[in-house]
Structure formats: C-alpha cells, structure tokens
Amino acid sequence: MLREPGGDRDWRHIYRQLVAIAMTAAKYAREKSEDRDMAQILSRNPVGDLTRKIDHEIEHYIYEMLRNTDLRAYIVTEESGSLSVGREKPEYIFILDPLDGSINYIANVPYCSISIAVLPYRDGASIWDVSAGVVAEIFRDRYYGFIRGLGAFVGEEPAKNHIVSIYDAILAYFEEPDLVGRIYRIWNMLGKPKIRSLGAASLDIIYTSMGRFKAFVDLRGRLRNVDIAASIGFAREVGAYAVDDKGRPINVAMDRLSRIGSIIVTREKDIVDLIESIET
Q: Per DSSP, what are the bridge partners of residue 51?
C-alpha cells in the first residue's frame, strides 16, 4: 500500500475514487452533449475565459460527488477559482478542469476530457507534489491515470503496454504572430514534421507522452495548472519530459489557480537538449 511518508494517506484508495468520479462525470457530460443550452455563455472565469453552462454544470456535478466522499479538500478549479469540501482544515488539494476542449465539446467533436489531480494540502504546493490524477475522455469512455511511484494506467492496463513511436507530427499552439518565428525554429530543428492542433491540452499531453506525437508545444502562456496537472503527472510516470521553452522542468503552483508559461512535452531527451541549445 502506497502511503504518504509520515502520514496515513492511501493513494490507491484515493485514486480509485478519482477514477469513479471522473468516469461518472464524463458519462454525465456525454449525456448532456446534445443539449444546445449547454453552449450558453454564463460569465467569465477567474482568469478571464468564457464560462459556458456546461462548464458550470460539470464542475458542480463533480463538486457534489466530492462532498459525498470522506475527503476534506480544497479544490482549485477553472470555473470558480476555488471551492472547499468539509469545514475542517483540508487534507488534500484537488486540481480540477471540468471540461478541457470546450469548443470541441459544443461542436460535438469527440476530443475533450475531464481532468482531476490530487496532492497533500500545504501552502506553497507545486506540481511536484501531485500524487495521483485521472484524465477521462468524455466521448470514448476511456481514462488515463497515474499514482506517483506506482505507475501510469490506461484504464486497468499499465500505460507501458500502450507506448508506441509514431513521430510523424507535433501538436503545436501559436496564435500570436510573434510566436511564429519561435515555433518555426523548433519545427525546423525537429525535422519539419507535420503540425496539428487538436484542441484539448490534457489529451494532447497524454497522447504525446505515449509516443503518438513527436512533441506537444504550447508557447502562448495561456494554459493553467488545472489544464495540465493530471496529464503532466501521467507523462512523468511514463518517462516523458515536460519542460519550458528553455528546457527547464515545468514547475507551477498548485495551491491556487495559476498560469504556466511555455510548455513542451516529448519522450525524446534529444529534443529537450535541442530546446536548451536554442536558448543558450
């Protein structure tokens, strides 16, 4: 049984709870996908992005499920910023993205997910403290998860059984004109692979970390900790690298809603070394 050093946390049990919550919420989201009211814009979230009705609905649905567990938690979430479960001091921080790929979702494009990660509660917590996480695909009834130190999983199977080496394309995001030159240098350095943008960072990172793509590159500085907490944990557990555009390991606060800067994910150490060489 994997327990937190010096404590009594059973991460296997908590992971099973995460899987149940994420998969139940994914089914709920799938059932709501034909309801056109779900696309209604309600407000802007704490970081200024649009909150649609479906974002709020899934967040509330997951919050109610967490309230029905025995976990005392502080929840960092994309739509509300933060929520609390229980009146006593939290034991855990949950990092929740109720809907990654919302544009795909409302367009009925089957590439979107729900992401939940968990770590011990403490001030100053970072992504290195994340102990377990789950990314659930909404339209495929499939999930990807990890327990730090125990491995990563695709459903009930070890993720290592799903590692491949398909390096024909990179996933890249660079909307601003001033990023085009930087992306071009990286693209040229990587051998001019095909470029795709699929629209859900958590799944992009999962698939890249399993070798479906050569690299995931996002230089916009728009992603938040909720977008990547679970998928980066998975990536690290399967041996992939997650670095910034200077080749430094990704680090971001987890005790509040936080933006990250650039992020590059790859299975190839040579790519990390090349990224470092560009910036030196």
A: 43
Q: In what order do the strands lie in the sheet with 151-154?
A: 81-85, 73-77, 92-100, 113-120, 132-137, 142-147, 151-154, 157-158
Select from 53, 61, 59, 72 the least CA-distant residue to 14: 72
pTM for the predicted model, two decimal places:
0.91
CA end-to-end distance (rounded Å), the chain: 44
Contact 174, 219 (CB under 8 A): yes
Average pLDDT over residues 202-217: 97
At residue 225, the 3 state secondary structure works out as: helix
Q: Which two tokens stand for residue 259?
A: 């933006």
Is the confidence at residue 2, as pLDDT, over 60?
no
Kindly provide the residue ranges of all beta strands, DSSP E only, lying in the chain, ordered along the sequence.
41-44, 50-52, 73-77, 81-85, 92-100, 113-120, 132-137, 142-147, 151-154, 157-158, 169-173, 194-196, 215-218, 241-243, 263-266
- What DSSP assignment string belongs to 88-105? SPPSEEEEEEEEE-HHHH
- What kind and span of H or E run contains 234? helix 225-237
Q: Which helix (H) or strand (E) holds 185?
A: helix 180-189
Domains of the chain and CATH, by start: 11-157 (3.30.540.10), 162-279 (3.40.190.80)
Chain centroid to Cα 243, Å, comes to: 15
Q: CA 217, CA 173: separation in Å to the nearest integer?
A: 6
- Burial category of 61 from C-beta neighbours within 10 Å (exposed 0-12, middle 13-18, buried 19 and up): middle
Local confidence band at 223 (pLDDT 50, 70, 90 cut-offs):
very high
